[in-house]
Amino acid sequence: MTAYIAPDTESPAPHYGASVTKVEPGGIERIPPEERHGSAVQLLWTWTSPNLEFATVYVGVLAVLIFGLSFWVAVVALVLGNALGSLTHGVLSSWGPRHGLPQMVLSRSAFGYWGNALPAGINAVMAGVGWFAVNSVSGALALAALTGWSAKLSLLIVVAVEVVVAFFGHNLVHAFERFAFPVLLVVFVLGAVAVFGKAHLGAAADPTGVGGFAGFTLTFSAAFGYAAGWNPYATDYTRYLPAGIGRARVGLMAGLGDFLSCTALMIIGAAAVTVGDKTTKNPTADFTGVMPHWIGNLVLLGIALGAVAANALNIYSGAMSFLAMGVKLPLALRRAIVALGFGAVGLALAWHGLKDAGESYEAFLLVIAYWIAPWLGVVLTDRLLRLRSLAGIGSIDSVDEVVIDRGYVNLTGPIAMLLGMVLSIWLFSDQTKYTGPMVTAHGSIGDLTLLVGFAVSALVYLLLVKILKPRTLSSAG
Asked: How deeply is 204 buried, as exposed, middle or buried, from its count of CB atoms within 10 A (0-12, 13-18, 19+)?
């Protein structure tokens, strides 16, 4: 059978190489051998730099200020959540050199060509709009606090830099993260020394917060949602690596970059809450206000730079996910054009978000975990079955063909993901606007949505794929 090759995965694009001044051509095509370049170590700063920003710090702030944990209990919950999200990130990243395709294109293996529009569409919105707005706001507020400029002018400056980096594409994104890495590392080490010099790490938990096991699970889920928020982007930044590179090293560098940066900054955020009262309506100014003036200014600059580092990835991968939905754009630079579109939409949302920065961040983090966990349950189960040639769905070698076949159908993936999401959110969600019956009846359990969602989706996929076997409907070339 000759599979029909989708136009958005046909290739030959102009030579790109390792140039950082060329706009990356094409969209979500497979990267051919002659375009492969780079090394595994670059993933360390590619996944460290985007986490060295205020949105990461604020997860730690939430753990103590809102979820009501003591500092040391918060540290345990943050470490566990980040470890799980970073572990899956490393596993997914290791797939890039083998296949040369973006993460949301590989997701078609478990969801089918058109069924993949479910996770790809969610990620396009979450990455290119949601995360983009969150980080742009924090970067703009930091720049405004540092310079005295208006928040709106600061937002325009931050967004302009973010969009330019994402527009040029893969090579400039990696280069920017490498440039930002040492600067951000020094800045946040200085900030950490200042915060821990004043912190009261042995202080009791705030009795007005959630507290207890519920606070622990909420913190764990928020940390997981943040670290695993990068999971749907994973192979976007490893698909250019040579096919023969050690995949274990690729996964290790990507996972470590995610884990170390997330954990360090979240712990700094948790410690900052123990210093004293907050006095302004600008969260970034609150955070830096506990530091000596010159260190605070450096950290504000770092927050703005970190926002750009994060959003360059968000816009780039948001565009990848949009194209992975099967959208056909007859443009040589379709990825770059879509990136510009996401930048415009994200700017509009961030402009509005300046009015209530941080107010909905807790809910946003949990929503990230609510959909990523079921998606992971599906794609990891599909991968395991293919690695072992089980359930009659084909081997790992079949992935390269089916993910570019517009006639490839795998109904099990969307069904399993939707069931996992619906059941877990309905029963276990612990949000201000909706609380599930299990949490209402047993409030001390907190938010177990991500764990239940992952387990349900993985189990449903494992059982149902034996009945609804993946198939190809098209056979014309």
From this structure: exposed
